């Protein structure tokens, strides 16, 4: 039983060492001075530098495409397509010469369309800003009207209470009080 356990333990150690060895790299130098890397240990008689850690290979990050310009929806279909192609060209791996040619073509064909697109975008933004301003002004006017109405109703209520508390009202004053109460109910109730 002990022999089996020792054998299994030795086998596990050997397998673990083999796994570690497969992940290490050795830098060796021949007697003529040539350096090379190997996954196996260096042969005897050769200068040995020991295992080196295997690093991850560097891969450059993909260029970002950036956001589409806000005037894109106002451009002509051809110009919008060219603009989008130029914007996404680095991410698609196009060469700088190709991108430069696309930019020259865009400038030649789309200068007027781009100017009109920016003008339309500016007009739309101005119209939206005006709508927001008008909505704010209307809301402010509504609040002011409600506040004024509340003040008027408060004053009318105060007048009603003072006239009701009087006991020496004439017939005409009582008729006027009834009309005033009806007006108060119709406006403030």
Would you kindly provide a brief summary of this structure?
The chain is mainly alpha-helical.
Characteristic key phrases:
189 residues; three-stranded antiparallel beta sheet; 4 helices
Overview of this structure, please?
The protein has 189 residues and is mainly alpha-helical. Among the domains are: 24-52, no CATH class; 66-113, no CATH class; 152-188, no CATH class. It contains 4 helices and 3 strands. The chain has helices at residues 2-23, 77-88, 96-165, 171-188; strands at 25-29, 35-38, 47-52. Helix 2 crosses helix 3 (96-165). It is elongated. The mean pLDDT is 82.
Q: Could you outline the blueprint of secondary structure elements for this entry?
A:
Layout: H1 2-23, E1 25-29, E2 35-38, E3 47-52, H2 77-88, H3 96-165, H4 171-188
Antiparallel strand pairs: 1-2, 1-3
Helix pairs in contact: 2-3, 3-4
Rounded radius of gyration (Å):
44 Å
User: What is the number of beta strands?
Assistant: 3
- Tell me the major beta sheet: 3 strands, antiparallel
Share in β-strands: 5-15%
Q: Uncertain spans, ≥5 residues at pLDDT below 50?
A: none
Helix-strand pattern: HEEEHHH
**Overall pLDDT confidence:** 82
């Amino acid at each position: 039983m002990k022999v089996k356990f020792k054998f299994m333990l030795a086998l596990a150690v050997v397998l673990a060492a083999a796994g570690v060895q497969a992940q290490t790299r050795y830098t060796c130098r021949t007697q003529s001075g040539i350096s090379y890397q190997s996954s196996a240990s260096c042969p005897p008689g050769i200068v040995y530098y020991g295992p080196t850690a295997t690093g991850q290979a560097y891969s450059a990050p993909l260029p970002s495409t950036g956001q589409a310009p806000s005037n894109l929806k106002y451009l002509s279909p051809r110009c919008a397509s060219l603009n989008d192609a130029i914007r996404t060209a680095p991410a698609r791996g196009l060469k700088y010469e190709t991108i430069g040619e696309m930019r020259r073509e865009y400038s030649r064909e789309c200068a007027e369309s781009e100017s009109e697109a920016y003008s339309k975008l500016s007009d739309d933004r101005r119209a939206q800003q005006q709508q927001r301003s008008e909505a704010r002004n209307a809301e402010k006017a509504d609040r002011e009207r409600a506040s004024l109405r509340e003040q008027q109703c408060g004053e009318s209520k105060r007048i009603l209470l003072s006239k009701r508390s009087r006991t020496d009202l004439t017939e005409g004053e009582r008729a006027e009080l009834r009309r005033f109460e009806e007006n108060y109910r119709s406006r403030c109730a």
